[in-house]
Amino acid sequence: MIVDQLINGIVLGSVYALMAIGYTMVWNVLRFINFAHGEVYMGGAFVALYLALLDMPLWLAYVGGVVAGALLGYLMEKVVYKHMRTAPKLNLLIAAIGIAILLQNVAQFVFGASPERLHSPFLTESVLIGGVLINQHYVFIIIIAIIVMALLEIFINRTLMGKAVQAAAQNIHATELMGINANKVISITFAVGSAVGAIAGILVGPIFLVYPTMGVFAGLKGFTASVMGGMGNIPGALVAGLMLGIVESFATGFISSGYRDAVAMVILLVILLVRPQGIFGKIVQEKV
Amino acid sequence: MKKMKELGYSKMGLIIGGIVLFFLPFLITNPYFIYVVNLILIYIILTLGLDLLVGYTGQVSLGHAGLFGIGAYSTALFSTKLDYSFWVTLPLATIITTMIGFVVGFIGLKLVEEYLVMATLAFGTILWLVFLNWSDLTGGPMGVSAIPAPPTIRIGSILEYGFNKYIDYYPLFVAFVLLSIFVTRLIIRSGFGRACTAIRDDELAAQAMGIPVFKTKVVMFTISSAYCGVAGALYAHFLHVVSPETFAFAMSVTILTMVMIGGQGSIIGAILGATLLTVTSEALRSTPELRMMIYGLLIILVMMFFPRGIMGLMHLFKEKFIKNKTVNTVVNSEVKKEGLRYE
Questions:
Q1: pLDDT tens digit string along B56-99?
Q2: In the Cβ-directed half-sphere of A137, how many Cα atoms lie within 13 Å?
Q3: Dist CA A53 CA A50 (whole Å)
Q4: Which of A233, A262, A280, B164 has the most CB atoms lying inside 10 A of its own CB?
Q5: Hey, is the C-beta of B123 within 8 angstroms of any chain A C-beta?
Q6: pLDDT of residue B337
Q7: Which of A93, A106, A273 sits opposite B114 (nearest CB)?
Q8: Would you call B58 and A90 a contact, using CB atoms and an 8 Å cutoff?
Q9: pLDDT per position as a tens digit, B256-285
Q10: Is B330 in contact with B338 (CB distance < 8 Å)?
Q11: How would residue A268 be classed by pLDDT, with cut points 50, 70 and 90?
């Protein structure tokens, strides 16, 4: 029983960690919380679902979903955020809320509100690992999450573009002065962060189903994880995502399932108030 | 001279508004339209309350739907379970909402900007989950129904006024809207209101001038939640039923959109925003997703192109065509650059 909860927690946690990466990457470069990130998660899952319904091979549908997610994030930035760089932060945030509302309802308009199950070849099978029977799809989620994180590590630390992203995170104006195309870096950041978010949505689709508002709580929890790990800290986001998933999974065992989503909200409030710099972060004084 | 003219405009607005409010019930006889007008009046109270916080203090809350819900649920429960009269439940609901608003503000306002937004959103979500899941008290997803109308007002045998039809609520709601406008004006013209404006424009500078920033923000948040309490109580007794989905995240967004579209930091803007969006949303009642799509698109467009909303547009228009051009273009460009707000 405890082992089951732990495994559920790790699976949930890897999904939250993937979500948190999107928030953290964008925050790193633009110092802005992309409130519509949850809708990328939803959009990716919906496109994958739709492609699978069109009798495409499942792997192609999944890849299509990821590409669509990346495109959605890229377009968001190009069409809206890019034109608001000098606007007050709050205006940007409210515009992001607008995007979230728009995308949710476009999805509802196009696909309908009823939850649908995304197909997975592994869902009906289970494997025996160390004496515990685990659903194969859960194993699939964990493996994919690890691969995505490894690829991300390589992208950020081993490629030129990754280094440009890191430079932009430190000082975007200086980056531009060094001859790096800052707009391109921002676009790439949005695309990569959103692709990771869409992967999270597609991985969850077969278990928790796909519906227009699926991104709302996933987004909030991903945000919670990124705050827990310290905004801008990618390894922190991973650990915090796992922690959040495990805590939530165990807490659900003790309280009524209706309050499940409240657990993350309470954790978010506590973290924001007690350690707003995150579990692993340092405090930065506000400058004039 | 300029000031006189400004005064003339606002007085003219007041007189026109008064005439419209007075004659409206004679012009509209269709009960559905009266229902919509009453809804608009409730939304105006909510919008004024949030505008005090967003437009005048610069603190955005996405938890006001939860506070609105607290107002509605407390009045609903007091009147159905304890049989209290409307005249008792209204102040009770307002007090309860104000107290909860104080707690939310006291905790949430330790944070700034987007973190405050996320914290209030978390509070709003928690309140909504409580409405939804505490079935013994709130009736769960079904909500509370059969909330009685306010009792008939009797003054001897001279006057008897009952609340049976939609139109009977109209004078009551108008009275509360006028009261809200009056209180809002009182607040923003007081020293406290000016302190709030200073915080909005530059928090660090305000602090350096000796304004107790945190305290001022918490007081404003508390006042703002009192508006939600009043609106919630009126809403519950008007519709006779409250259910959790009304007080979900979408409601917070709706109220915020009203503030933004009308133009933050303006009473007339709040009234315009509430009216415009309620009418649109009633017109699109049969297709709720289309309505929310339009909300989303409106928010994006307003934020991208006219962050000052309708009032900002009107201000620009006035400058271009009515007043001295050279002086005002300077002011205008300054306004644009610094992100300052104006009434």
A1: 998 889 899 999 999 999 999 998 888 888 888 899 999 999 99
A2: 18
A3: 5
A4: A233
A5: yes
A6: 41
A7: A93
A8: yes
A9: 888 988 888 888 889 989 998 888 888 887
A10: no
A11: confident
Distance CA B289, CA B282 (A): 13
In chain A, % helix, strand, coil (3-state, to 5) comes to 75, 5, 20
E-only strand ranges, chain B: 153-155, 159-161
pLDDT value, residue B341:
34
**Segment B178-191 mean pLDDT:** 91
- Kindly give, in sequence order, each residue whose CB lies less than 8 Å from that of residue A18, ignoring residues fewer than 6 positions away: A145, A148, A196, A197, A199, A200, A203, A222, A241
User: Of A102-111, A254-263, B83-92, which range is least confident?
Assistant: A254-263
d(CA A203, CA A174): 38
> What are the structure tokens assigned to B199, written together?
């915080």
Which distant-in-sequence residues (6+ apart) come within 8 Å of B282 by Cβ?
B36, B39
Closest-CA residue to A203 (of A149, A152, A137): A137
Q: Which residue has the tokens 């709720």?
A: B288
B284 by DSSP, 3-state: which?
coil
Q: Does A223 touch chain B (CB under 8 A)?
A: yes
Residue A279 neighbours by CB distance under 10 Å: 16
Confidence of residue B5 (pLDDT cuts 50, 70, 90): low
- The backbone torsions φ and ψ at residue B264, rounded to the nearest 5 degrees and listed phi first, read -65, 150
If we measure between CA atoms, which residue out of A212, A218, A204 comes closest to residue A37? A218
Q: What is the pTM of this model?
A: 0.84
Where residue A40 falls among pLDDT bands split at 50, 70, 90?
very high
Report the 10 Å Cβ neighbour count for B36: 20
Residue A26 has a pLDDT of 87
- Chain A, 244 to 263: residues with Cβ < 8 Å from chain B are 256, 258-259, 261-262
**Interface residue B115 vs chain A (CB under 8 A):** yes
pLDDT in tens, B193-221: 999 999 988 888 998 989 999 999 999 99
Is the predicted pLDDT of residue A231 greater than 70, yes or no?
A: yes
Using the Cβ of B110 and the Cβ atoms of chain A, whether some distance falls under 8 Å is answered with: yes
Residues contacting residue A73 through CB under 8 Å, at least 6 positions apart: A22, A34, A37, A40, A190, A191, A193, A194, A195, A197
Structure tokens at A38: 């949850």
Closest C-alpha among A50, A20, A43, A19 to residue A104: A43
Least Cα separation, residue A101 to chain B (angstroms): 5
